[in-house]
Design goal:
10 strands, two-stranded antiparallel sheet, Rossmann fold, eight-stranded mixed β-sheet, single chain, alpha/beta, Multidrug-efflux Transporter Regulator, Chain: A, Domain 2
Length: 344
């Protein structure tokens, strides 16, 4: 279709479409005879995505980054729109919650501006955490070779020791029945989520990496994949029966891990379950002892690997879960790998 038809279909103007073309966001083909722009169905969906992202307040540079791949499929464009809309929805919910708390503060203590400023600052930090999510490990580049990366031996420091046992243990403890809904956060190529397919469980895999999701779809087409991350899960409140995650939470800075638990709690149904198998220490004392042991062995690679990421403090996660009405069990696979199972 030509530019006027595309504009009518999207309820926008030819001028706006030309503007996005000038900014390098769309690349319509041109008719060789008359130089008219010609838009395919994929072009129209890409334009629709641009308009939707602009509607929720994203800047042009941010949109350009998100749409870096000009060959995205229609489902990928829609997945991206859903992810952005959920982030905007969560931000609005955070704002409303903060305003309600501010109103409560002024009712309890008149003119208590300090409490209001504190709440406003908390909201800003929360917004920054969600907005500044960054994939510093560039998982898109890992997707094709991810299975080769997960080796169990041959390393001076083997982060994947007991990997298979950990995934089997998660699958074993999760009490999920036929037609239950299970969310796998940081699903990667589907190694954990796929273990629930044979039970008739509907698995939703969330990952920040489009290529990881593509690989997962290729291996396990039964799994529904959605683009997102720990701090902005693309699901409605109380919509899943269980949540699992493996080797993913340690990519979050410590300050964001509890926010991730809050997001899990938001999407989990009453009597739901959470099971996390990840690189973490029992507590700070355990962390110090393990790192000191590696140093004394001269295993500098191990020390650097631990310090490069954000291995969790299991005691803090357990404390939060217990404070929020979960019954919690833990399992230690080795010095750096633990599992937390929590049930409401």
């Amino acid at each position: 279709m030509y530019i006027k038809e595309a504009a009518v279909r999207l309820n926008t103007t030819p001028r706006a479409i030309r503007f996005y073309e000038e900014k390098g966001l769309i690349f319509p083909k041109k008719d060789k005879e008359n130089d008219y722009r010609y838009f395919t169905e994929n072009d129209v969906v890409r334009l629709s995505t641009i308009l939707a992202l602009r509607e929720v307040g994203l800047g042009l540079e941010r949109i350009k980054d998100l749409l870096e791949n000009s060959e995205m499929s229609i489902n990928e464009y829609l997945n991206l729109q859903r992810s952005a809309l959920f982030e905007q929805w969560l931000e609005l919910k955070d704002m409303i919650t903060t305003i309600d708390q501010m109103i409560g503060s002024t009712e309890d203590e008149k003119d208590d501006m300090e409490a209001i400023f504190k709440l406003a600052n908390q909201l800003k930090k929360l917004k920054d955490s969600r907005k500044n999510w960054e994939d510093k490990w560039e998982f898109d580049d890992w997707a094709d070779e991810y299975e080769n990366y997960i080796k169990k031996d041959g390393y001076v420091f083997n982060v994947h020791q007991d990997y298979d046992d950990a995934l089997e243990k998660v699958a074993e403890v999760m009490e999920l029945k036929h037609k239950s809904v299970c969310l796998d956060i940081g699903i990667g190529t589907g190694n954990l989520g796929s273990k629930f397919i044979a039970r008739g469980v509907h698995v939703i895999g969330v990952d920040q990496s489009e290529k990881m999701l593509q690989t997962c779809n290729g291996k396990y087409p039964e799994i529904e994949t959605r683009k997102g991350h720990f701090l902005a899960l693309p699901l409605l409140d109380h919509s899943v029966d269980g949540i699992v995650s493996s080797y993913a939470l340690h990519h979050l800075p410590d300050k964001d891990k509890l926010l991730a638990l809050e997001e899990m709690n938001r999407v989990l149904k009453e009597n739901g379950q959470i099971c996390i198998a990840d690189l973490m220490f029992q507590n700070e004392d355990h962390r110090s002892r393990v790192i000191d042991a590696f140093r004394s062995q001269g295993n500098i690679e191990a020390v650097q690997s631990i310090e490069d990421e954000f291995y969790g403090d299991r005691s803090l996660l357990v404390k939060w879960l217990e404070a929020n009405s979960y019954q919690v069990e833990t399992h230690q696979f080795n010095d750096i790998l633990s599992m937390i199972y929590a049930k409401k």
